[in-house]
């Protein structure tokens, strides 16, 4: 291994820059060259490369987004697209790459490795925390902090007006963000895709809350929740069944993907970036670097792609107890 490429692919997440920095500086430390690949796999196909040294990644550890830009590339899903990418990498002398992204990006890396025997390592970068083989994905902790900050503010207005707020948070088909931020922000109810709560139980629970003296309520709803068709229909249903409540909806949206990474995400990014380079230099390929019980571990990419990240059901119980 003499020249390692690094790219960010799929949705961006806070901490990607800190991971790029770690990869670039680990390469310098171990005396191998490093090349930044812009715009994910699309930049690989178009040969959008830049040699990177330690000074090229100064002042980015604290920045959200990704200096390398990210993209979704339809061309990389085709054999012709991947052939172009391979030819460009070879022409530039790049002999391996580290891809920071989600399971789609890992699938692309796996297929590319199968076709060309090209060494690849994945770093899990997504706020959703929905990747098997790591307790935390890059950006997840920052997103949680962003969400609780927003809900704290919403609570101020909910309290002042005796309102019920439905706050929709991201997470795709996983309820990690909703469950953890919901507990952290003191939500009365948390609706996640992994648990079918049922509308009747929701109404019953909200009536109980009101009966116990609560004058306002926050319900955190994961975007993938299946209880109502969407959060606005949920609002309509509650208004019909609980006319005493003034119901509002807040969809937090893309603000959750941005912002300066938390200290946790910066440290995690640094550890994952270093380990990714070390793994390639050890002659290994097709692994995802991840965090498990505070140790950096390797999970075969195939398992990371196919495995299901699971919700800690203990947390559901904790949420029920502390919101009573
Ligand atoms: P996010 O969690 O934000 O969705 P992701 O990495 O899962 O991140 P995707 O859009 O699914 O995001 O994948 C990123 C890119 O990986 C795609 O645009 C495509 O270029 C490549 N990719 C995904 N699946 C495949 C595949 N089956 N074959 C080849 N390339 C793929």
Give the topology, please.
Blueprint: E1 3-8, H1 16-29, E2 33-37, H2 40-46, E3 49-51, H3 79-91, E4 96-101, H4 103-116, E5 120-124, H5 140-161, E6 163-169, H6 176-184, E7 189-191, H7 199-211, E8 217-222, H8 231-241, E9 246-251, H9 263-281, E10 287-292, E11 295-300, H10 301-306, H11 313-322
Parallel strand pairs: 1-2, 1-4, 4-5, 5-10, 6-8, 6-9, 7-8
Antiparallel strand pairs: 2-3, 10-11
Helix pairs in contact: 1-9, 2-3, 5-6, 6-11
Bound molecules: adenosine-5'-triphosphate.
Protein name: ATP-dependent 6-phosphofructokinase
Keywords: Allosteric enzyme, ATP-binding, Cytoplasm, Glycolysis, Kinase, Magnesium, Metal-binding, Nucleotide-binding, Transferase
Active site: 128 (proton acceptor)
Summary of the model, kept short:
Its cofactor is Mg(2+). 43% of the residues lie in helices and 18% in strands.
Could you list some keywords that capture this structure?
single chain, 324 residues, alpha/beta, seven-stranded mixed sheet, 11 strands, 43% helix, binds adenosine-5'-triphosphate, EC 2.7.1.11, kinase, cytoplasm, allosteric enzyme
**Spatial order of strands in the largest sheet:** 3-2-1-4-5-10-11
Report the uncertain regions: none
Structural class: alpha/beta
Please work out how many helical segments DSSP would assign.
11
SSE topology string = EHEHEHEHEHEHEHEHEHEEHH
Q: Count the E strands.
A: 11
Rg, rounded, reads: 22 Å
The pLDDT mean sits at: 95
Oligomeric category: single chain
Main beta sheet strand tally, sense and closure: 7 strands, mixed
Strand content: 15-25%
Which percent bin holds the helix content?
A: 40-55%
